[in-house]
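lol forgot to send this yesterday, sorry. struct tokens for the thing we talked abt
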């Protein structure tokens, strides 16, 4: 009887908990002669849970005896017991994952460095030069050609310059990628010239066909022109870095890079069938001047899924090009060209429109500028720093831009009308 009572006391007292702590710790030590920190933590948590279970049992007993004193908000003693140590475990796991991710990123960077790209830029104006600086910084070989002579600037940047937009000579540079950075207005003419040079190069079989990328600020227009004009075995990436020399003067980190893997290995991205020319059909002249195969291709839209399944040289080259932007910290946004233009009309175009309208007012800084007005001046400055060609291109080749202009006029009239109504009501009262 005495033995039974002492055993019961032992199991109900704190000494049981201490005994269990000791036995478990020894068990861990024997189990693994070199226990990891995780094992020790696990054992400690087990013990803490055990200790808590016993305390909870005590809380349970006392709360049932004082149930009449419960508050509406709930008795703190009845809340779920804290899982002490769990947070520490999670933090440790988090740190392990960060270390693993950093290691993968280091491997990726080293892998990319092993095979830098040879990148050709057509159109070495403001934006072409802006991109080239980063391409060179990332150890890619850059070759530029443009209508104007940029030989000195190119040399200063470590870029090879091909004079006078000599495309056959440009193509002999063994380019992996060609980036078109000409104005929206001159895009079609430039692509037509490039297409015939590529066709010749392709027929000669001497030059491997490069990936062709556009960076225009509208997307359906270049997409349709490239699909129509470029030889069918040329891969196409439509892209729009949503920043420029002004907005990204301190780096590209966190800035949006929109892209559509338009055609890889002859497979065309399955975006909603759209009218040619971004809602504006290509004229018969435009179609006949291209060596187009758009009709066949449009029938042959096999979709993104099939593209993702094909791991080819073309895919690798495209991923390497996208990595340039990823490595700079861009926010990568895969988006169809149609969707891009819908969003851009009410974001980018309206920004340029407002900047130009406000610029027309001849605004200038005053001695009492508010932060709001400083933003207005900045908007005027950044939007008018871009060429008028760019602004006109945004208007002409985004099918949604006229709606934006009309909505802005309606909104302006509406706001002024409201002001007048209030004024009239005030004066008649
Ligand atoms: P832009 O005025 O849109 O384009 C200037 C470029 O187009 C220059 O390289 C110019 O060559 C070339 N060009 C103009 N007319 C030409 C013609 N008839 N034939 C051949 N080339 C011609 O200014 P940009 O800012 O440099 O923009 C270039 C492209 O990048 C545009 O498509 C724009 O939409 C896109 N983009 C610009 C920004 C930005 O912030 N600026 C951002 C994202 C995307 P020359 O200099 O040799 O005359």
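and heres what i got for the seq, position by position
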């Amino acid at each position: 009887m005495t033995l039974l009572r002492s055993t019961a006391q032992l199991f109900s007292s704190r000494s049981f908990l201490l005994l269990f702590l000791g036995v478990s710790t020894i068990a861990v030590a024997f189990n693994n002669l070199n226990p990891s920190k995780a094992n020790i933590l696990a054992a400690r948590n087990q013990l803490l849970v055990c200790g808590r279970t016993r305390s909870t049992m005590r809380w349970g007993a006392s709360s049932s005896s004082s149930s009449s004193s419960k508050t509406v908000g709930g008795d703190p003693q009845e809340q779920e017991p804290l899982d002490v140590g769990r947070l520490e475990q999670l933090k440790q796991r988090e740190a392990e994952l960060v270390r693993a991710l950093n290691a993968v990123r280091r491997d990726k960077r080293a892998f990319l460095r092993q095979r830098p790209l040879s990148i050709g830029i057509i159109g070495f104006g403001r934006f072409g030069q802006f991109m080239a600086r980063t391409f060179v910084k990332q150890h890619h070989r850059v070759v530029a050609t443009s209508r104007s002579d940029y030989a000195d600037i190119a040399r200063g940047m470590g870029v090879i310059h091909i004079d006078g937009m000599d495309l056959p000579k440009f193509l002999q540079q063994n380019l992996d990628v060609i980036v078109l950075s000409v104005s929206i207005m001159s895009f079609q003419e430039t692509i037509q010239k490039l297409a015939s040079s590529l066709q010749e190069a392709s027929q000669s079989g001497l030059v491997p066909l490069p990936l062709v990328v556009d960076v225009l600020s509208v997307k359906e227009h270049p997409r349709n022109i490239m699909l129509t004009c470029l030889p069918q075995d040329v891969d196409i990436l439509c892209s729009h870095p949503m920043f420029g020399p002004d907005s990204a003067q301190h780096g590209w980190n966190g800035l949006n890079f929109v892209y559509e893997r338009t055609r890889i290995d002859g497979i065309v991205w399955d975006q909603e069938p759209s009218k040619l020319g971004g809602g504006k059909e290509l004229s018969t002249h435009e179609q006949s001047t291209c060596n187009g195969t758009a009709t066949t291709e449009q029938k042959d839209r096999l979709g993104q899924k099939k593209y993702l399944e094909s791991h080819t040289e073309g895919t690798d080259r495209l991923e390497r090009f996208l990595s340039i932007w990823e490595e700079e910290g861009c926010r990568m946004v895969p988006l169809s060209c149609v969707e891009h233009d819908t969003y851009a009309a009410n974001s980018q175009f309206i920004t340029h429109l407002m900047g130009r309208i406000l610029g027309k007012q001849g605004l200038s800084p005053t001695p009492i500028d508010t932060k709001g007005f400083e933003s207005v001046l900045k908007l005027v400055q950044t939007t008018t720093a871009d060429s008028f060609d760019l602004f006109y291109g945004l208007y002409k080749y985004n099918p949604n831009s006229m709606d934006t202009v009309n909505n802005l006029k309606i909104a302006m009239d509406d706001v002024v009308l409201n002001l007048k109504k209030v004024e009239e009501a005030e004066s008649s009262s």
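Residues 115-336 form a domain with the Rossmann fold fold (CATH 3.40.50.720). anyway ping me if u want another try
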